[in-house]
Amino acid sequence: MITRRTFGKAVGAGAAAASMTGVPASATAPAPRGLGQLKKVRTDLLEIAYYEAGPATGPVVLLGHGWPYSPYAFDQVVPELVRRGYRVLTPYLRGHGQTVFLSADTFRSGQQAALGSDWIAFMDALQIPRAIFAGYDWGGRGLCVAAALWPERCAALVSVNSYLVQNLDPKLASNPVAPAIEAAQWYFDYFTTERGKRGLTQNRKEIARVVWTKNSPTWHYTEADLDRAAALMTNPDYVAVVLHVYRHRRLTEPGDPRYDDLEALLRKQPPIAVPTVTLDGKDDGNFPWTDGTPSAARFTGPRVHHVVPGAGHNLPQEKPHAFVRAVFEAARLH
Q1: How far apart are CA 232 and CA 34, in angstroms?
Q2: Cβ 326 vs Cβ 319: under 8 Å
Q3: pLDDT of 293-328, one tens digit each?
Q4: Average of pLDDT values for 259-280?
Q5: Residue 183 has what DSSP assignment?
Q6: Strand stretches in 35-140, DSSP E
Q7: CB 113 within 8 A of CB 120
Q8: Which three-class secondary structure state does DSSP give residue 126?
Q9: Structure pTM?
Q10: Backbone angles phi, psi at 63, to 5 degrees
């Protein structure tokens, strides 16, 4: 378990120095559909843009989006949670939308320790002691990291694709997976190259289109859906963060030294002890669905697993009601 003191040592001065808590963002950027009011808050490293909806005194749910997706994946999730009395916070991850780094000198890291630490800093900045964590892909990974290392901050967890803490043991890095999975994860390796860097810089929306289509082959998204997500890819740090996510994951680029202690803990594959509901989309073209048993040993608390028919990798947007039901179920687990 990581204490607040250890966290502060690992990532800097910490969110105790946060300012602008809950300050609304510009009125020129209205919240799409049901996400709520767009606000901004500062941590030690970031100014995080986030949507807030629901009663200020309600139990808090944090929603974490993936890549190359956006908070808009939760358009239909948030209103249902609000109707049940939850306070719902949906931030833009680092490198996306209006979330920006405070200093030009900060390492534009996308490593899992950074993603997990951002959630704790966000909670500290808003003085939220505990919340339900619910996410997928990058957002789910960061929330799994936070749940594993700071379980006292997590009331319950909903994670698409189960245990998302990466095993970055160098001895395992070169081990291949099934050819079909290698093919689906083509961009993991593409982004380790300079050709991939130029490709991402020049073709952000079209790369997203390919990933959406391959990861969710039965999802009938619209061009407007893709355009809304692509608009967030104009963030000045988008390319740097995306590249580092995959270069660090493939061990071709080092991480930010500020997270070395946390990464050492994550290499031990810490268990998640909080009540958890895990979901697999049955049509996921990236991570094939399972019955939950391959990751069972990683969950030492109450855990329920569901396979969701008709859902691909972007499960909250494809099957929002299934995702909402998982949040309600996780909240009741003991």
Answers
A1: 18
A2: no
A3: 999 999 999 999 999 999 999 999 999 999 999 999
A4: 98
A5: H
A6: 37-42, 46-53, 60-64, 87-91, 100-101, 131-135
A7: no
A8: coil
A9: 0.91
A10: -110, 125
